[in-house]
Specification:
This protein is of the alpha/beta class. It has helices spanning 12-24, 81-93, and strands at residues 63-65, 68-70, 103-104, 108-109, 114-115, 119-120, 125-126, 130-131, 136-137, 141-142, 147-153, 158-159, 163-164, 169-173, 183-184. β1 and β2 (68-70) form a beta hairpin. The radius of gyration is 28 Å and the shape is globular. It starts with 11 loop residues before the first helix and ends in a 5-residue tail after the last strand.
Amino acid sequence: MVEESSPLLPSAEESIEAETDTALEPDPKTDDEPSPEPASEPGFVCDCEEWMRSACTGLPFYKEHEDQRYCVLHYPGKEKSADFKAALDTKLIKKDFDFRGVWFPDEVDFKGFEFSAAADFRYATFSKPANFSSATFRGKADFSWAIFGAVAGFMSAVFSADTHFLAAAFSAMQTSALPSSARMLTSER
C-alpha cells in the first residue's frame, strides 16, 4: 500500500519572504491609460548648434525633427505655439535675451519693449511678422544671419550700443523700416 504524503508546506521564513516579495510587486494597471511621460529628461542636450545652446540651457527635450532632438525654442515647427510662448515669456521675465538660433513660430510683438541687456538674435528665424518698432536696445543688438520670413518692423527702434544685421535676410519689409545693412531676398530664392 502506498502512503499518500501531504504536500510540503514552506517553512515560516519562506512564507514570510514570499508574502513580502508579492507585496513589493506593483499591481498591474486596470485601466488602459498610458503612464505620463517625464516632464524633463535628465542630461538632455538640444541638437541645435553647440554655440546656440546657451539660449536653451535647462530646457527639456521637446520634439524630434529630421532625427534631431530639440528643445521648444529651437524646434522648427509651427505646432509648438503655446509651449513656445510660455518659454519665451519666461526668458523675457528673466531678462534673458539670448535667442541664438531660436525658431519663432508666431508673430512676435516687441513694440516698445526695452531690451535692458545685450540682445542676441543671431541665426534666429522669424516665420511670421516681427515687430521691433519703438523697441529700445540698451546693450549690443545682434541680428546677424537672422531670417525674417514675413514683415519685420524696426521703425523708431533705438539702438544704444553696437548693432549688427550682417547677412540678415528679409523676405518682406516696410521699406522705411529696413536697416541699411540688411538685404532683401528675391522671389527667385
